[in-house]
Amino acid sequence: MAIQRTFSIIKPDATKRNLTGAIAAKFEVAGLRIVASKRIQMTLAQAETFYGVHSERPFFGELCEFMISEPIVVQVLEGEDAIAKNREVMGATNPADADEGTIRKEFALSIGENSVHGSDAPETAAEEIAFFFSGLELVG
Ligand code: ATP
Ligand code: MG
Questions:
Q1: DSSP alpha helices (H): ranges in the chain?
Q2: Which of 6, 7, 57, 128 has its C-alpha lying 20 to 30 A from 87's C-alpha?
Q3: Rounded to an integer, what distance in angstroms lies between the CA atom of residue 108 and that of residue 98?
Q4: Terminal CA-CA length for the chain
């Protein structure tokens, strides 16, 4: 597997509880390098665009309101097989189903307030990185 980049969000439930560093450490221990990082707060329009794929799901409104409720930390992670590796470190969407040692098992509060987002494929990783970061913010 080649070196990849993936996009990550440390979600409001985690920034609020001062878990940014603890979550970043999990990425680094797993061999993912944080090559870009910034703390922002999304507008509702940005959240609705970002989660557009879920617009028909019953939890869409709740998800977007949650994602704008506090600042988030958006990051680009780089490493061998980074997209799959990040999903592995994150754990299952529902913390009740997440494996021991994963971020969601350790930190998530519920299926909605689940501490992190990670891209699920090379195409979405590229789109999501470009949505939040300009070329100038990304060191080669
Ligand atoms: P993410 O896209 O955030 O990395 P994921 O790929 O594991 O998570 P998705 O199915 O893409 O999960 O869902 C996106 C997000 O929507 C979840 O991370 C969670 O915050 C929220 N979500 C998913 N299912 C539910 C649900 N049943 N009830 C409430 N919120 C949900
Ligand atoms: Mg997803």
A1: 12-16, 20-29, 44-50, 60-67, 82-90, 103-107, 122-132
A2: 57
A3: 10
A4: 19
Structural tokens at position 74: 């958006």
Residues with active-site annotation: 117
**DSSP 3-state assignment of 35?**
strand
Structure token digits, residue 73: 């930390």
Residue in the structure block whose two tokens are 């969601």: 104
What's the 124 CA to ligand 2 centre distance in angstroms? 9
| 70-112 per-position pLDDT tens digit | 999 999 999 999 999 999 999 999 999 999 999 999 999 999 9
Q: What totals of helices (H) and strands (E) does the chain contain, helices first?
A: 7, 4
Q: Token pair for residue 2?
A: 């080649």
Residue nearest to atom 19 of ligand 1 (CA): 112
Taking the model in full, what pTM does it have?
Answer: 0.97
